[in-house]
Design brief:
Layout: E1 3-6, H1 10-21, E2 26-30, H2 36-42, E3 49-52, H3 53-59, E4 62-65, H4 72-78, H5 80-83, E5 87-90, H6 103-109, E6 114-117, H7 124-128, E7 131-132, E8 135-136, E9 138-142, H8 147-159, E10 162-167, H9 172-188
Parallel strand pairs: 1-2, 1-4, 2-3, 4-5, 5-6, 9-10
Antiparallel strand pairs: 7-8
């Protein structure tokens, strides 16, 4: 299962490193595959590659959107045909917009894609090291049930997180609210960025 990561910042870089270490082929899609910044990242992730956005998307089964949120509509429109039918993961946040996620943008561009809302509600520091005080952090996500969901859970588990399925994307706002809670506690209440959540039941 080859994974295309669109965006090579902290989120994309952290997840790409984890997936590559777990044995998944990873390619970073970018407008500038020769970027020195990207080259520096690739030097820390053995086996990972860089390609154009078009090349990365075309070669992969799973596409992670870790770009700035405002770049997603342009990317989705320009590469709609390549995205359709794939598993798409929206990890972006636009906290200044009425709708934080880009699920509907991706659905409009690629109606046959299986779209998931995940990796948007925790800081990259948790993805890099998902065990806090001896407890494995959970990741809440939404998306359609079925075989593709099992693959997404596999990828969440490969990062070292506990996958918690909230439901289909009509409940994406619930996952968005978890991200808003994280941002509020860290940026307004002064909690450390190594902050995560755990679902507990008995």
């Amino acid at each position: 299962m080859k994974i295309a990561i669109l965006g090579s910042g902290n989120i994309g870089g952290s997840l790409g490193r984890k997936w590559s270490e777990a044995g998944y082929p990873v390619v970073f899609g970018t407008r500038d595959p020769e970027s020195p910044k990207l080259a520096a990242l690739l030097a820390t992730i053995p086996g990972a590659m860089a390609d154009s956005l078009a090349g990365a998307i075309a070669s992969a089964e799973v596409v992670l959107f870790a770009q700035p949120s405002k770049a997603v509509p342009e990317t989705a429109s320009a590469h709609a045909g390549r995205l359709d039918g794939k598993i798409l993961i929206d990890a972006t946040n636009n906290f200044s917009a009425p709708v934080i996620n880009q699920v509907q943008t991706l659905r409009a561009a690629a109606p046959q894609a299986r779209i998931y809302r995940a990796f948007n509600s925790l800081g990259w520091e948790v993805f890099a090291a998902p065990v806090l005080a001896g407890v494995t952090a959970d990741l809440f996500y939404t998306g359609p049930d079925g075989a593709s969901r099992k693959l997404v859970e596999e990828l969440i588990g490969a990062v070292g997180l506990g996958p918690i399925w909230v439901g289909d994307n009509d409940l994406a706002a619930v996952v968005d609210a978890v991200g808003q809670l994280w941002i509020t506690l860290v940026l307004q209440r002064g909690w450390k960025r190594r902050l995560a959540l755990k679902a507990i039941t008995d």
